[in-house]
Write a structure and sequence with these properties.
The chain contains 8 helices and no strands. The protein has helices at 2-33, 45-62, 69-82, 89-98, 118-123, 132-150, 153-162, 175-200.
Length: 202
């Protein structure tokens, strides 16, 4: 009996040692990226490791400076004009993606306020995905590119979430993506209504 217990303890320690790097990675993403990540999640490990490396590189240069939310709003508005996006759409998308958190890392390894995946950031030639101005501009370029491909905002927004390969002539039957499209469109309408109300009250 004692030998059996000792053997089970040995396997427990082996399991803990084997899983500790996984837990460390996920917990670091949760703490640094302000996201909820299951400590033993085995998914998107490469993307999360990439995001943490980019985060460490960025934070070395921005410690003590911070990022002003008003600056982020201004950059989003400029990006909407630059890439001919409807007013307030990118702002709504960024709010749903990251709640306007510049250093956000998602459980899938998406980075920054516009939540760029490592592959997307590379395709868009983004050197620092946690620089808010660069990140927002890349998100705007990507959304504009998707609109040129799909010609409908719900489809472009769906492709932003699920990836272009998963979207054809309709929003895919992916519960997360369908909810995402609804939330972005609702946030966009709310922002437009608020802007109109401010104009009317002047």
């Amino acid at each position: 009996m004692a030998k059996a217990i000792t053997r089970s303890h040995r396997w427990l320690w082996v399991a803990l040692v084997a899983l500790s790097p996984l837990a460390a990675l996920n917990l670091t993403v949760a703490i640094c990226g302000s996201s909820a990540v299951f400590p033993l999640s085995p998914f998107f490990l490469k993307q999360k490791a990439h995001a943490l490396a980019a985060y460490a590189h960025h934070r070395a240069g921005c410690l003590g400076q911070g990022h002003d939310v008003l600056d982020l709003d201004a950059w989003i508005a400029q990006t909407e004009r630059r890439h001919k996006l409807p007013r307030h759409l990118l702002a709504a998308l960024v709010t749903i993606e990251s709640n306007n958190q510049v250093h956000r890392i998602s459980p899938t390894g998406a980075m920054g306020p516009a939540q760029l995946m490592p592959g997307t950031a590379a395709d868009l030639h983004v050197l620092d995905p946690f620089d808010p101005q660069t990140n927002v501009d890349a998100g705007g370029r990507y959304l504009s590119r998707l609109m040129k491909r799909y010609h409908q905002w719900p489809l472009a927004i769906a492709a932003y979430n699920a990836g272009p390969g998963n979207v054809k002539d309709r929003v895919p039957d992916i519960r997360e993506t369908q909810a995402y499209v609804r939330r972005v469109l609702a946030a966009w309408q709310e922002r437009k209504a608020a802007a109109q109300s401010r104009i009317a009250s002047r």
